[in-house]
Amino acid sequence: MEKMFNIIFSGVHLFAALILIILSLVTMGWSVYEVISSVGESTEFIPLMLQSVGAIIISAAIIDVAQYMMEEEVFVNKQLRDPEEARRTITKIIVIITIAVSIEGLVYIFKAGTKDLTLLLYPGLLILVSAVLIVALGVYQKLSATIEKVEKENE
């Protein structure tokens, strides 16, 4: 019975990951299409380009999440959870989030720079949050590696 549920849930995770990948690729394709189709028009090209870059960045982050779902929930035996594996998984997720947040912050800095400098607060906070995430990840890595070392010595 447990094996059947594992197969069903692995299938659901696989389906969800494939849907995320397809939606991300469609978003990327649409973004490129919008930029190419607006080259000769009188609309402002730079804001559209920045919007497309932001959409592609979010799509790439979604693909990373789908990859994680497939690796962790479909291809890996879920019964093998140890502290080292948990640390690697959390590290992977935090790195994906940090990259997405920092790149979005950069995109919004360029957008704010073209409109109004008072709008730089929000992107500045995004960059600050990504820096805090990196520091927090470093602290987590250090603490969890120390705990793993102590556990291995006690065995």
Compact overview of the structure:
With 155 residues, the protein is an all-alpha fold. It contains four helices and no strands. The chain crosses the membrane at residues 12-33, 45-69, 90-110, 122-140.
Describe this structure in words.
There is one protein chain. With 155 residues, the protein is mainly alpha-helical. It has two domains: 1-80; 81-155. It is built from four helices and no strands. α1 (2-37) runs antiparallel to α2 and α2 (45-75) runs antiparallel to α3. The chain crosses the membrane at residues 12-33, 45-69, 90-110, 122-140.
What's the number of helices? Answer: 4
Low-confidence stretches: none
Give the helix/strand class: mainly alpha
Mean pLDDT equals: 83
Q: What percent of residues adopt helix (DSSP H or I)?
A: over 70%
Q: How many angstroms separate the termini?
A: 34 Å
Shape: flat
Please compute the radius of gyration using only Cα atoms.
Answer: 20 Å
Biggest β-sheet description? none
Number of domains: 2
Beta content: under 5%
Q: What is the N-to-C succession of helices and strands?
A: HHHH
The total strand number stands at 0
Features:
2 domains, 155 residues, General glycosylation pathway protein, 4 helices, membrane, transmembrane, mainly alpha, transmembrane helix
Layout of SSEs?
Layout: H1 2-37, H2 45-75, H3 83-115, H4 121-154
Helix pairs in contact: 1-2, 2-3, 3-4
